[in-house]
Amino acid sequence: MNLRTMILKEIWQRPTPMLTSLTAVTLGVMALVAIQNITLFSEDKINNDMESLGANVLVLPPDVTLQDYYAADLHGRTMPEEFVTRLALAQLPGVENLAPKLCVDAVVDSQTVTLTGILPKNEFQKKASWQGLGMLTNAVGTDRGCCPTAANVDTDNSPQSLASTRTIQTLDESDVILGSDIASQLKVKPGEKLTLLENEFNVLAVLPSTGTVDDSRLFAHLHRVQELSGAGPVVNVIEIMACCEEAAGDLITNLSAELPETRIITIAQVVETQVAVNGLMSRLSWVFFSILLLVGAASIASVMYANVTERRKEIGTLMALGASRGFVTNLFLGKALLLGIAGGLGGYFAGTILAIILGPNLLGIQVSPVPQLFLIGILSATTVALGASYFPARRAAGVDPCLVFNDA
């Protein structure tokens, strides 16, 4: 009978003592894999959201409290449009796009709607004093080389790109763009006419659904909205497309120094909070993993020591028949190796399935298997199992057959 056969027979004949140890090891690997898996994909989602937000820095009037990123311009307070010029001429490193906005109430078919004035990029190009600014004259998405990593700006210059980039290349003063919800409510389509503030507008486009307040808005040229509403040259907010590293770095300080009369908010502040939570989850996963594996190691060691004590006569018989100390040691370590591999495999698959189920249902994150965690789970489980079994195996190998039979 060879070593492998003896190991399998031993596990088959005495499965109960090993199940507790296997369960502890499996739970440890499962906790690590599930939490790490969710954390990794959560971080990816945050990075993608940061890149796809379009504008990731807001310039607001000083007394505004930010309640919602996409509704930050509904506070009713204003600041001079001249602040846009100051920002443009400052040429701050990290600023790629500026998007001033003004929100006013309007009535369409007896229904009150939010009309948002936006300034298309071609308006920046019309001002002679801004002609030398590469940020404003380049096509959307062009990086001026001011950032290690440029923001992910959609290069599509169609009106529909407003939904993702928060900016638009061209918009005539007689045009209006509708969000998906308000277009459905008003039952209008591109090319039709719409009366706003006692003036007729051409429906240029309907934006795709974004799941934000933009779906219920109408967008028109900023200067036209200022003129018709009588608000004058003011805006509610200046949205800034900033390079990702700069948005989380010195840009906020530079903006505050340039416009001390305003309040600067960056979505990176919100992102940093979520990143901190992800970091905490990641660290906790290693804590849970360590605790459960320590429990598993103690359980394995206890089972192995008990097994050595119970089987002293069998071990003595094997050694009397010619089994070497190395053979006996490998017999116990072989069982531990199988236990670790089984616990690592079971923990990886159980943890991955748990993450795939919990990710979308609880956190709205799509999760898929991470091969690196498979290697970590297997190596960790087998290392713990072998480490916990080493001294019991050495004790078994040290059994003296003569003393065993004399005790009998």
Automatic annotation (TrEMBL):
Keywords: ATP-binding, Cell membrane, Hydrolase, Membrane, Nucleotide-binding, Transmembrane, Transmembrane helix
Main location, first listed in the record: membrane
Classification via InterPro entries: ABC3_permease_C, MacB_PCD, Macrolide_Exporter_MacB
Spans traversing the lipid bilayer: 284-306, 327-358, 370-391
UniProt domain MacB-like periplasmic core: residue ranges: 20-236
Domain ABC3 transporter permease C-terminal: 287-400
Record localization: Cell membrane
Name this protein carries in UniProt: Macrolide export ATP-binding/permease protein MacB
Organism this protein belongs to: Polystyrenella longa
Upper classification of the organism: Bacteria, Pseudomonadati, Planctomycetota, Planctomycetia, Planctomycetales
